[in-house]
Amino acid sequence: MMAPLNAPLESVSFAIVGTGGAGAITAGSILQEAAGKVGWYGVLVRSVGPQIRGGEAAALVRLSTTPAECMTKDFDILVAIDWKNADRFIGDMPVASGGLVIADPNAGPVPGAITDAGTSVENCELNARAKDIPGGRENMIAVGLVAGLIGLSIESLMQVVTAKLAKKGEAVVEAGRKCIEAGMAQAAGYGQSYPLKPVPESSDKRWLITGNEAVGLGALRGGVRFAAAYPITPATEVLEYLAPALASIGGALVQAEDELSSINMIIGASYGGRASITATSGPGLALMMESLGLAAAAEVPIVVVDVMRCGPSTGIATKSEQSDLNIAVYGFHGDAPHVVVAPLSVADCLFTTQWAVHMAEALQTPVVVLSDQSLGQARVLIERPANVAFIGQRKIWQGQADQSYDRYALTADGVSPMAIPGTTGGQYTADGLTHTVRGTPSSKKSDQKEQMDKRRDKIDQFAFGDHWGAVEGTGNTVILTWGSMTGPAREAVRMLAREGRGVKLVSLRQISPFPVAALGKALAGASRVLVVEQTHSGQFYRHIRAHMDLPPDTRQFNREGPYLIGPDEIATQIRDWSSL
Fold first, then answer.
1. How far apart, in whole angstroms, are the C-alpha atoms of residue 142 and residue 139?
2. How is residue 435 annotated by DSSP?
3. What pLDDT digit, counting tens, does each position of 164-209 carry?
4. pLDDT in tens, 433-478
5. 289 sits in which H/E element
6. What is the average pLDDT score of the chain?
């Protein structure tokens, strides 16, 4: 439901659409960054076609006076630079009844899906207005239109525009100003506005970061100094962040020829004593499985970040899904204990990746981090994340001349000191064969059992602590979810609380080994549980049921990508259930 005309809002959502090269995403980025300078929060999601570059593109932006982790159900404002290929993406941005659509009348008819929704349609000749200004651009007119409608000042916008365009010269910056002013003047004549409430001034600057960048920063904070990877959507930005960052601190990133090379490179670098990481998506993770088994058997610490996308096979590269859960947990051949974790938000990508490095080094095991496109490529305005003391520390064998080296010695915690190559007396065999405590290949049943028990016990005995997940709210109705679905579920809980409905949110960060005791405690007293996930087959629900029972009154709410489950839908599931 739309707010009364000109009433200050807590949150506003808008979309800017156009073909690739029209600058729609740049326009959304400028508006989001300027919003951060006045103290607002926000999230920007890119919507592009399967061809990744070129074709249709859209910036979907939500700005808010309080932290925002996901998009709302409907958009208040839609600005169309053009309507080319609109049928491919228009479903991603439903405009609310009574919402405002602004389009260039010379760029094609407004799609029926937009007009049928009861929207107000206003014309703005973006192309002609841009041509009237030397060096003018249509997307900068769009920036002015949205800024005028939501109450964003020209001063905050020009701080961003100047920083982005200063290298191109004063004339380009001035053209940007004139375009923005023209757009703002046009917006003033529509008789409709969506001003956000002002927020108290604060000396704390907002962070503007994507999930992929946060993954990279978390890796660096965890102690990673080597990365190898093959570019793949939607994980490539992790590598783009790490390449210069690693070089600046004495580390290195190698672009491998394929995913098989990249994981074998990080195994080699870690064997040599460097905390190492790679980033990929579902197709790449599938190719890495044999080498992940090698790292588990040889007890070489590595971190693999999987930024999930729609599958199977190459699926939809630019859209999100959570359907790599099964392969991450169960895809290793044989019994190969390892750790799988999933960040709960864009900001949590930093913490979870840093924690993953810590666990990989401490346990000498592969750790898989399950992010996804909705987290990885979302750009958010957030509070500065707290510094966490996790630094990867592995047990290193120092070497003693009078002592032989048992690389895979059976220890109380299951973790054996690891020799760095070149350490006197520290030679050993590291491969995927069953081995003795010295590392010598063996076919004995006793060696197989001892080493398998060792690898299992070191993970089972590890103190994961309170980092297994998040518990929020109260009530005997529980929304149980994981990873990126936490944001929509969290907002649904807040919506229901405003209606007087007490609902608890339980969200898992630790996917494997499964936190049976911790989750059992969190679900104690629950009479109803709604399991929410972005998969077609309900992989998360079945993963839970493989380890523990749930209350008899448990329901599933799952859907494949690319359409993400939103907070309104989750809240509706609870309302409808409660009315029975």
1. 5
2. B
3. 999 999 999 999 999 999 999 999 999 889 999 988 776 677 899 9
4. 999 999 999 999 999 999 999 999 999 999 999 999 999 999 999 9
5. helix 289-298
6. 92
**pTM check: above 0.85:** yes
Interatomic CA distance for residues 233 and 410, integer angstroms: 42
Structural domain spans, the chain: 11-187, 208-382, 395-462, 467-578
Put the strands of the sheet holding 95-103 in their side by side order. Answer: 120-123, 95-103, 75-80, 11-19, 56-64, 41-48, 379-382, 207-210
CATH code matching the domain that covers 208-382, chosen among 3.90.550.10, 3.30.450.40, 3.40.50.970, 2.40.50.1070: 3.40.50.970
Query: Which CATH number describes the domain made up of 11-187?
Result: 3.40.920.10
Query: % helix / strand / coil in the chain, to the nearest 5?
Result: 40, 20, 40
The residue count for the chain: 580
Q: Order of strands, edge to edge, in the sheet holding 366-372?
A: 252-255, 226-229, 276-280, 302-308, 366-372, 339-341, 510-512
* Count of CA atoms in the C-beta half-sphere (13 A) of 38: 26
Which residues are CB-neighbours of 122 under 8 A, at least 6 positions away? Answer: 100, 101, 102, 103, 190
Instruction: Tell me the C-alpha distance between 114 and 101, whole Å.
Output: 8
Amino acid (1-letter code) at residue 468? W
